[in-house]
Amino acid sequence: MPSSVIKRNNVTITGKLSGARTIVFVHGIGTDQSAWQDVAKQFMTDFRVVLLDNVGAGHSDPEAFIHSRYLNLKGYASDLLEVCLALQLRDVILVGHSAGAMIGLLAAVDRPDIFSRLVLISASPRYIDEEGYRGGFSVKDINAIYDSIAREYSSWADQFAPMMMANTDQPRLVTRFSDSLKRIPAERALTVFCSILQSDHRHAVRQLKRPTLIIQSQNDNAVPREVAEYLHASITGSQLKIIDTEGHLPHISAPEKVIEAMKEFVCA
Fold first, then answer.
1. Helix boundaries (H) for 67-138
2. Which residue ranges make up each domain of the chain?
3. Half-sphere exposure of 21 (CA within 13 A, CB side)
4. Confidence (pTM)
5. How far out from the chain centre does Cα 242 lie?
6. What does DSSP assign to residue 244?
7. Which fold has domain 2-126+201-267?
8. What angle do CA 142, 147, 149 make, to 5 degrees?
9. Residue 160 clears pLDDT 70, i.e. is over it
10. What is the pLDDT of residue 1?
């Protein structure tokens, strides 16, 4: 079981291997564990660092992607818990980006004994607007995304990447994200986007009982600032840090600002 779990999620264990504390990094859609390279290396002197590829991304086991399991984020959260149990991890500091943040949150609600604290970057429990809640997307917006993925995935990825990455003065980052998206087969990408964009995990947010740091860019085309404020208001004792950068992937475009925002919290 442990070896199959490690293979399934292409788990990498690095940093201070004998360290008493462990940080687990969980990436979001369209990226893989390599998205953390600049952030993770800053913590390798003092922490054991665990990186993984969510099933369907990076070098995860392609045979493990079963559409019915990953129609919502609970399948990914179960995978994360299995990795932690296989490695016998406790007092884990979970750092997650976007969908990876919500995967970590769901796992921590299910098994709070495994996690000591969470860092949620560009996180959203619900993307669709409703009365009294601004998620950033209408149902029409969501359906247009599904339609574009199904009809012209490559062209859609080329348009989506600069919107999410922002920082167009760093075109190599936009290209890197676009290329990463295109490595996901269109049918699989459609399943994953459905699992994220149609989700509503606000009930789980209110159940989280672990110290939590929420990191949000000043301007994020996927997650409005109101969502970060909602998370902050809903998670007892949480901290919210708005960092001076643009885009939905600040751990890639502005890693030094993300590191600065999370360092004191992680090292406490």
1. 74-86, 99-110
2. 2-126+201-267
3. 13
4. 0.97
5. 17
6. E
7. Rossmann fold (3.40.50)
8. 95
9. yes
10. 46
